[in-house]
Design goal:
The protein is an all-alpha fold and about 80 residues long. The protein contains four helices and no strands.
């Protein structure tokens, strides 16, 4: 397995898990959009969308969820501020 495949597998698993952990707090349309972004390897878009949802809908995240968002943003080189 090459580095790109490993990165895709890591991001897919992490983002799917993160999206699942807040699925009950977001509507079906946004869950479907997140799944589509992840399925199409649009990991940065998925993370930005997820982060935007948590901010706009004032979704209370656990410290673990917040840390995972920060970790993924750093891994992808994104600034979510």
């Amino acid at each position: 397995m090459n580095a790109r495949d490993e990165f895709r597998r890591e991001m897919n698993a992490a983002l799917t898990s993160l999206a699942s952990s807040i699925a009950s707090k977001i509507d079906r349309n946004n869950r479907d959009l997140l799944a589509e972004f992840i399925d199409n390897f649009e990991f940065g878009v998925a993370l930005e969308w997820l982060h935007g949802l948590t901010v706009s809908k004032r979704i209370q995240l656990s410290s673990e969820q917040e840390e995972e968002i920060r970790r993924l943003a750093q891994r992808m080189g994104l600034d979510l501020s």
